[in-house]
Design brief:
By secondary structure, this protein is α/β, with parallel strands linked by helices. Residues 307-313 and 352-368 have low confidence and may be disordered. It is elongated, with a radius of gyration of 23 Å. It contains 16 helices and seven strands. The strands form two sheets. It has a five-stranded parallel β-sheet with strand order 3-4-5-2-6, sandwiched between helices. Helix 6 (150-164) packs parallel to helix 8 (190-204) and helix 15 (315-326) packs across helix 16.
């Protein structure tokens, strides 16, 4: 029996990129391929919606926390697409999530971007907002020399926006913000960035402005920001923090990468039962081993502990590569045939080498 015989393997070969969301095919795939862990449906999505619904009290900005490749960009893309276009609601594959998302469907004009520059945060935000306002024909211009407070300028912008779009809100999505903030912390420029984040979060409480950003770890707990603890507390008051857990990542692996029929699960269970005496926890957690086969359940515990930025990335994409390698191999009869954490490290090192070779070739090509 080969690994391919006991899996309905749906590969994940790319990470979500916000700049690809202009493509209708890409948008459709974002909605249709999303899977819904119980924690998402019961906690994360309702809390996001609560902070996006018009007329709700005590609304805040939204911070989505999750390691590289755990699905935070996919989650933010899903919510923003539905908030932008109610037509996508019918493509949501979870009926409960559909009901929860319905109140915000089509209610927002949305602008998304990633942090790919080292300029001051206010300069980046106002540049992106200005470009978007121009695109949607809102008559407002940020003055780079203005002495007005950030909050006052945002108030003026929203007044102009609501005059043009009285039945809409404005939703701003920023991804990969943590590396940018850490870079500025190292340069002694963090306090101004935190003032901007505070103003953006504060604006969410006033009306139809909403702001959501994604980071790899909660910014208030990052050791690089310890010197700015007092300012961090002011920022924290303006945001609701939603963390993607290791259980949620394993759910995605189980229900997207490794879907199995009941017959396939039975075959896996029969295979694994022979090795129960060799694993201290397999007897009491046999169902977890079956659902995640061929991934060892502790894979995700160890993955969450990795703190090196390069090593954190793209767990789902990395698992896809590992599945592809073994798909046509026979499942061994003398061992469980599980993918374990040490194989993740080996794959990460191989990817690092491949990327280094590609970068070397690219630089030498340019110099030629």
């Amino acid at each position: 029996m080969k690994y391919r015989d006991i899996l309905q393997f749906d590969p994940i070969t790319d990470v979500i990129q916000l700049d690809k969301l202009e493509s209708s095919d890409y948008r459709d795939d974002i909605i249709k391929s999303f899977v819904y862990p119980d924690y998402f449906v019961e906690t994360i999505i309702p809390e996001i919606v609560r902070n996006l619904k018009f007329g709700e009290r005590n609304k805040k900005g939204i911070q989505i926390i999750g390691n590289y490749g755990t699905g935070k960009s996919h989650l933010m893309s899903l919510v923003s697409l539905i908030a932008e276009n109610s037509g996508y609601l019918d493509k949501v594959t979870n009926s409960k999530a559909n009901d929860i998302l319905a109140p915000i469907a089509g209610k927002y004009m949305v602008h998304r971007f990633e942090m790919q520059t080292t300029r001051q945060l206010w300069d980046i935000v106002t540049f992106q907002l200005q470009r978007y306002l121009n695109d949607i024909n809102v008559d407002y211009t940020f003055d780079p020399d203005s002495l007005k407070m950030y909050s006052e300028q945002l108030d003026e912008m929203m007044a102009a926006f609501e005059e043009k779009y009285p039945d809409k809100g404005m939703l701003i999505i920023i991804d990969e913000l943590l590396a940018y903030l850490k870079g500025h912390a190292a340069q002694g420029q963090l306090n101004q960035d935190l003032q901007v984040l505070q103003a953006l979060g504060q604006q969410c409480a006033k009306g139809r402005f909403a702001f959501m950003f994604g980071v790899q770890e909660m910014i208030y707990q990052s050791k690089e920001f310890a010197f700015a603890a007092d300012m961090m507390l002011k920022v924290k008051d303006r945001y609701t923090d939603l963390t993607i857990r290791k259980e949620d990542v394993s759910f995605v692996v189980q229900n997207r990468l490794l879907k199995k029929s009941e017959q396939q699960k039975s075959a896996i269970r029969t295979h694994l039962e022979k090795f129960i005496p060799l694993f201290a926890d397999m007897h009491s957690h046999l169902q977890d081993y079956v659902e995640l086969f061929p991934v060892h359940p502790s894979y995700f515990d160890n993955f969450q502990r990795i703190k090196l930025g390069r090593a954190q990335r793209e767990v789902l994409k990395t698992l896809t590569k590992q599945f592809e390698k073994i798909a046509d191999l026979d499942i061994p009869t003398d061992n469980p045939g599980l993918i374990t954490y040490d194989q993740y490290w080996e794959q990460m090192m191989a990817d690092t080498f491949e990327d280094g070779v590609a970068l070397y070739k690219q630089r030498n090509y340019k110099d030629a």
